[in-house]
Here is the input.
Amino acid sequence: MRKGIGLASIDRLQQTSQQYASHGSTLRAEHLSSLTTQLSVFQNLLHQFSISHGKEIRSNPAFRAEFARMCNAIGVDPLVSSYHGNGSKSKDGGNFWTQMLGRTVNDFYFEIAVRVVEVCRATKAVNGGLLPVTEARERVAKGRGVVGGQVEISDDDILRAVRSLKPLGSGFSIVIIGQQPMIRSVPKELNTDQATVLEALQVLGYVTVSMLRANLEWEGFRAQTVLEDLLADGLVWIDTQSEDGEDEYWAPMRMV
Here is the structure.
């Protein structure tokens, strides 16, 4: 007859299991402590770097963009951070970005974001709510009062400013049409056919139903439906007086 497991054996198994669990917890705690220390060191070095190269960060948008990406890589979010790398709050209530931009980076991007919203609203009747990032940057740079006119604004600054609006549920987002990043200020999503037509408009300036049928091998009703949807949303303008008599659908920016 086979013997069962005794109480002593059960106790030993439980003790062994507890020892393994305790040892595992200790290793995890040590590993976390080590990572925390390393991160703190990196953040402190990053803070020192920002002070030493503050002038370059303020004046060079490419340098500023690379620095921001480096910050994000080690968990320092310039849009939400309000502490020094060593975890202590700055005396003026801001953060170490204040020393780079002359104000908190939140204010820096907030000002740009406000101007982007204003520009998108002002041009919506023209572009239907799709504005190229490069055009937005040019318009924002011409505006008065943006970051005191002391900092050159880059496309990367515009992209970060628009993304900072996402938590507010503003409906603003970045979409890529062709290879061009654009700011979408209307909540409606573009389907694949609409994106294809808009990409063609970037190259050709205008399209017609026959052009879409010939080049994309679409049925006539498919091409007509896509163009009518874009027209209804204000993303294309129609020319009903073309020489060959066929309606032409133009990118609004090409007709201004």
